[in-house]
Amino acid sequence: MAAPPLPGPLAHLAPLLGHYGYWAVGAVVLVEDFGVPAPGETILLAAGVYAGAGRLNVVAVAMIAFVAAVVGDNIGYAIGRFGGRAFVHRWGRYVFLTPKRFEAAEEFFGRHGGKIVTVARFIEGLRQANGIIAGTAGMHWRRFLAFNALGAALWVGLWTTVAYLVGSHITTVYDEVSRYQVYVLVTAAVLIAAFVVRHFVRRRREA
After folding, report:
1. Could you say which of 23, 68, 99, 200 is the most buried, measured as most Cβ atoms within 10 Å of its Cβ?
2. What pTM was computed for the model?
């Protein structure tokens, strides 16, 4: 079966995806998630379109992207945890994570706590720096892993499913979803905060 034409900004990924397939999906998502400027979300959308046309298996695309996203963020976490701010300030500029961008992201992370690990997956800039910031902030690894895995599952599930279903119309749908992204993220953050508060209240009552 011939590869379907990829629409708009996805078109430049056709040679990469057509030649390397699942390897391209895993590698690009992996490196994006520890700070390397790579089109992780874009290749996920393109792979979903290919899956919808029968060129790739949608379950395999989702599983590979999920594992790559979690592993990539954990590499970022290790960089932040063991390298610290000095490492980020020295080497971050080579992957466009300048001290100014890092400080802004870290401040945002600090204000919103662990729940931002989940919703950061959907925010350009924070998605790439999420693990590094969590590491430098000293967040407990198991807590980071849980929130990060949840965010990866939601992110991969959303964009793989949408691209698989709408095919060549994905760029139009993506633009519409992005337009209301802020409202979706605020709602998600409120729900996560509510669950956290409920958990602490329940534990306090049991104590």
Report:
1. 68
2. 0.71
The encoded tokens of residue 61 equal 């695309």
DSSP state of 83: I
> How many angstroms separate the CA atoms of 207 and 201, rounded?
10
Reported residue count of the chain is 207
Residues 6+ apart with CB under 8 A from 36: 95, 128
Per-residue pLDDT tens digits for 77-131: 998 888 766 666 665 555 555 666 666 666 666 666 667 788 778 877 777 778 8
Q: Are 105 and 125 in contact (CB under 8 A)?
A: yes
Task: Report which of 74, 47, 57 is spatially closest to residue 151, judged by C-alpha positions.
Answer: 74
